[in-house]
Here is the input.
Amino acid sequence: MSEPLMPESYHAIIRHGAYHQREGAPSARQPYALTDEGQAQARACGDELAAMIAQHGLQLAPVIHCSHQLRAWQTAAEVADRLRAHGHGITEIHETGALAERGLGSAANLTVAEIEAVLRDDPRHEAPPAGWKSDSDYRLPLEGAESLMMAGARVAGHLRDSAGAGAGRLTIHVGHGASFRHAAHHLGLLEKEDLAKLSMFHARALLLCYRGHDSWSRFAGAWKVRTPKEDPID
Here is the structure.
């Protein structure tokens, strides 16, 4: 006997809006707020998402998921406010560490130069390879650090867990560009060679469809094609 078909579920992955950053530091888990531009981007995202929901006849799940980073929570809050203004019932913003950007462990929020100096001065470690910050597989040899692939696997796990609980509905997830891209690779949506070529627009929804048996596809929205000089992180 064939297995019963699982109802489709839909998932909006949203990179946070523009935010204040420490110059020279990998974005990772910086604790800073959205800029005025970022707040406007998040509000526009809520309006755009409401239009996508109406266009495709989707039913919205009442809980928005976001990382613990302030910029993600603020983006989720602005999106929720706009969706409520369009008549949608958002009841909760649920923060989860599963949606965080790649963790740099004990080097969190240091600049690239400071991180490289730490490794240079530690006789236990070799210097990081050129371009280490955007290397999908490189993990800093420091306690608590992740590679981008490890972060993507964590985010992919969150999306898989949400897929079963949100059958037939659209669930919103607000997080970070690099970990979302690498999650997309783990879900079979992007080839590894595409990861360095693509990014995500600030506060623009990209909709995924889950059809069961770990089958994912892009349903609406678009990846951003990165310019050669664009920073690939977050």
